Amino acid sequence: MPSHLETVQEIYNAFAESDIDTVLAAFADDITWVEAEGGPYGGTYHGPGEVAENVFARLAEEWTEFRVEPERFVDGGDTVVTTGTYSGTYAATQKQFEAPFAHVWDLEDGQVVHFQQYVDTALHNEPLEDEA
């Protein structure tokens, strides 16, 4: 079985390849996924289906070239922290953004049971706003 660090790294690799099935397969059935409050998808989602519908599907529909680029991994055994950069273009406004993020992944028996996102939500929301 891969280490928890390797599992998280594989999730990022699969996401970069738009292989959402592989991403979701790494989630426990009762995963709790927390998107930063105030962000475009802010809230808490339970189970892979809610994450797929409320986060991943919306990212795919609403953004062009949305990227999640991890830069650093901190291996804490059952907890893995990743820092990196989000970037993309919001399709409706064609505005681009870039924002640093931190992700905290908690795993049990090789599956993600909890995810917490930290991001500057003001930067993430800027492309969603129409110019006045």
Topology:
Blueprint: H1 4-16, H2 20-25, E1 27-35, E2 43-46, H3 47-62, E3 63-75, E4 79-90, E5 95-108, E6 111-119, H4 121-125
Parallel strand pairs: 1-6
Antiparallel strand pairs: 1-2, 3-4, 4-5, 5-6
Task: Name the descriptors.
4 helices, alpha+beta
Description:
The structure is a single chain. A hairpin with a 4-residue loop joins strand 4 (79-90) and strand 5 (95-108). It is built from 4 helices and 6 strands, in the order H-H-E-E-H-E-E-E-E-H. It has helices at residues 4-16, 20-25, 47-62, 121-125, and strands at residues 27-35, 43-46, 63-75, 79-90, 95-108, 111-119. 30% of the residues lie in helices and 46% in strands. The longest helix has 16 residues, at 47-62. It has 132 residues and is an alpha+beta fold. Strands 2-1-6-5-4-3 form a 6-stranded mixed sheet.
Structural class: alpha+beta
What's the overall geometry? globular
Tell me what portion of residues adopts beta-strand conformation: over 45%
Count of separate DSSP helical elements: 4
In the sheet with the most strands, the strands line up as: 2-1-6-5-4-3
Low-confidence stretches: none
- Cα separation of the termini: 53 Å
Mean model confidence by pLDDT: 95
The major pleated sheet works out as: 6 strands, mixed
Give helix % range: 25-40%
Order of helices and strands: HHEEHEEEEH
How many beta strands in the DSSP annotation?
6
Describe what is shown at a glance:
The chain is of the alpha+beta class. Helices cover 30% and strands 46% of the residues.
